[in-house]
Amino acid sequence: MGVGISLSGLASAVANEGGVGVISAAGLGLIYKAHSNDFDEASRWGLKEELRKARDATKRSKGIIGVNIMVAMNDFANLVRTAVAEKADIIFSGAGLPLNLPSFLTGGARTKLAPIVSSARALRIICRSWIGRYRYVPDAVVVEGPKAGGHLGFSREQLADSSCTLERIVPEVVEAVREIEREQGRRIPVIAGGGIYTGEDIYAITELGADGVQMGTRFVATEECDASPAFKQAYIEATEEQIDIIQSPVGMPGRAIRNSFLDRVREGSTRPKSCPFHCIKTCDVTHSPYCIMLALYNAFRGRLEQGYAFCGANAWRIDRIVSVRELIASLREEFDRKVASLRLP
């Protein structure tokens, strides 16, 4: 959902319907490049602006606005400091282990912290660091499964393994969380994401112990999503066969909609001349077939011949654009219908 897909427009719409709206910090330096020629400075200014716009558009009585900041970003520390200073309600952080995330909280800070993990082992490592070094217990934990969109915390071998599923991982993470809760005397909500598509899916994963869900793909095809109409249309037109696993320049596998740009990448006909942004720690321009920041920015703007759309495994099921209100209402209805069906004799 990074590089423009989930900004203040989508985040405030979700918050206004009772969810947690999330602004992605990825790529804000390109989106707000008119403010500064320095990518990192423009990113920080853009994050402030998006948080301000989201707050202005959110009903304060119930609106929760979060920020997703990847550990792999070179300006991770300053972006976290900015989110805390701007009083973001919560920071979600993955694409690496956010071992020092609590160190950026200042006295009286109201911002909550939630790591994103793909295994119980990763959660335990993070909690040992947070609790041991900072006496800080996570305010929530997001566990992402292998059907998620974008960069994935799994190897290609794991993605091909039919036994590696969100349904298997969630109970393991929940068990680890319950151990930490007993030790610390604190409740830690578990939020599951990756392949959640219907209200029935939400019910099924909560039956495995999750307290809530994270959804991205369904919300791309909404009127309020900040992506261009062409980006949304790519989801609507995608077939199941086009949903593909690619190797990202940042060194991680990712899930995207295969298109002509990715075909050219496979043919070896693309190559960046230089790295103008230095945005991701693990990206090596000397071995990268393209600049991922530019590719995702182009897609966000609708120039898909020069980029591509990240997506979840179920993106091909989307056939129309709806409002956020309609989508959340339909998810609630499906969830309630599933619960009611189980009460029948």
Task: Give an overview of the whole structure.
The protein is an alpha/beta fold and 345 residues long. It has a domain at 8-221: Alpha-Beta Barrel (TIM Barrel). Helix content is 41%, strand content 12%. The chain has 13 helices and 10 strands. The strands form 2 sheets. It has a 7-stranded parallel β-sheet. Strands 6-10-9 form a 3-stranded antiparallel β-sheet, with no helix packed on it. The protein starts with 7 loop residues before the first helix and ends with a helix.
Helical fraction equals: 40-55%
Instruction: Give the second-level CATH assignment, the architecture of one domain.
Output: Alpha-Beta Barrel
| Category from helices, strands and their pairing | alpha/beta
Ends distance: 42 Å
> How many H/I helical runs?
13
As residue ranges, the low-confidence spans are: none
CATH 4th-level superfamily of one domain: Aldolase class I
**Main sheet characteristics:** 7 strands, parallel
The CATH topology of one domain is given as TIM Barrel
The total count of strands amounts to: 10
